[in-house]
Write a structure and sequence with these properties.
0% helix, mainly beta, Jelly Rolls
Length: 106
Amino acid sequence: MATFKSYVFSEIGVTEATVYAPSEKSIVIGLAIANIYGSVMPITIRLFKSGGATVNIAKSRRIESGTYVDLMAGNKLVIESGDVLKAFAGDVDAFDLSISVLEGVA
């Protein structure tokens, strides 16, 4: 049975952080990123597929200080078991991130 889940990560910085690694097929329905840094800052979100391919969901996406962006905004992203979603920013402790998913889809 599919279930809705949400995960939050604070202070995403220059070290690439795993923000989602499902154990079963899932659908990402929300990916909100808030800039908590003092100025405009870039963030990169990458999907590493289990087969070896890497896809940029957002590459050096610049977000204004004190604002947020929902990268999914009406879109959906299917992520399978073995895939990994990672994020990193242009400086330390620059972004908070919230991801909403529907886990266990067939």
